[in-house]
Amino acid sequence: MPDEKKSSVEEVLKREKLAKDFEKEKRVSEQKAIEQVAAKLSSQSQVSTETSKSSKFITNIDIAFSQAKTDLRFYFLNDGNYADEFKRMFVENESLFKRYGITSQKYLEYIRESFDRYKKIHDMMPLDPMKPKHFKYVEDSISELIRMFNQRFGK
Asked: What is the mean pLDDT of residues 9-23?
């Protein structure tokens, strides 16, 4: 008797359904992140009387940071005011990053990879919190990236 072979159609359909569910979940999480940033910005504008042009609009970096704060890989952004410092550094160099095609998501990935590199060099545990010394290393790493871009591609 021949053995009945499983059809791969079921697996393909299951995979497509999972991919569709993932995309739907991704859109929902992006929408929630946008709503969180909008609520945060509106509460900030109510608190402060001085409004600047950058605080009136939700920027890509705000959306990226709000999404990253819910992602476990970026757990260190929830410690202290490191997220604000990284955001400030991105805004200061935004034109340069835009010129070289570095999006806010790529910037966050670079920050995470730099911090992971520091942890690996110093034999730290995977979920060790970020400290000022670690922040300085990541900040220097970003500065070095900017310097190398300017050196490689010129101004």
From this structure: 86
Q: What is the DSSP letter of 79?
A: S
Report the alpha-carbon distance of residue 19 to residue 11 in Å, rounded: 12
d(CA 146, CA 61): 18
Mean pLDDT, rounded, for 10-39: 83
Spell out the domain ranges in the chain. 9-48, 72-155
Neighbours of 52 (CB within 10 A): 8
pLDDT one-digit tens code per residue, 28-55: 888 887 777 777 766 765 544 444 444 4
Q: Sign of dihedral through CA atoms 148, 71, 79, 104?
A: positive
Would you give the DSSP letter of residue 51? -
Asked if 103 and 53 touch (Cβ cutoff 8 Å), the reply is no
